[in-house]
Specification:
mainly beta, Umud Fragment, subunit A, seven-stranded mixed beta sheet, two-stranded antiparallel sheet, 33% strand
Length: 170
């Protein structure tokens, strides 16, 4: 009886990747959260002017919207604004759950990292959209550091469908 209980507990609390048998993700079926480490001391709120300022995200920050593929719902949907950076401070510490924008063959994709590995060519990752109905399995592509253009720092949930800049296609 105790052996059966221990087996059940082991199944409940085992950590798996999307590539493990049963296609489960993380403990309890949860997905890893983005872990981009913006230092809390770099975030400033000025209540008198209702401004939020984030320091130290140079060299470049880009604001972008996504198209209606639904692959990143419910976190990112059409019209939402993703704040992106190509700063080495963030790009050099990518981890499970981080949302990246990568490009292959002229196609830009914004998905979450679900696998990280190293092979004879060096570091790589695989991604998957957060919406398990439209993206039930990880993307087939192996993504190298040089394929990654941006990492998402945060998302503003707003209606920006009319913006004419920074559109990311997925």
């Amino acid at each position: 009886m105790i052996k059966k209980i221990l087996e059940m507990l082991a199944q409940m609390f085992s950590v798996k990747t999307p590539y493990d048998e049963g296609n489960e993700t993380i403990i309890g079926g949860e997905l890893p959260s983005p872990r981009v480490a913006i230092d809390r001391r770099d975030i400033h709120y000025y209540p008198d002017s209702a401004r939020l300022v984030v320091d130290m995200i140079l060299p470049r920050v880009m604001l972008a919207t996504v198209q209606a593929s639904n692959s990143m719902e419910p976190l990112i949907d059409i019209g939402h604004i993703a704040v992106l950076s190509d700063n080495e401070k963030y790009m050099s510490h990518l981890n499970f759950g981080d949302i990246i924008i990568w490009e292959k063959g002229g196609k830009k994709i914004i998905h979450s990292i679900v696998e990280i590995g190293e092979d004879s060519l060096g570091w790589y990752c695989r991604t998957q959209g957060l919406n398990r109905h439209t993206n039930p399995t990880p993307d087939e592509e192996i993504i190298r550091k040089e394929d990654i253009k941006w990492v998402a720092l945060c998302v503003f949930w707003c209606d920006s469908k009319e913006l004419s800049w920074g559109v990311i296609y997925e």
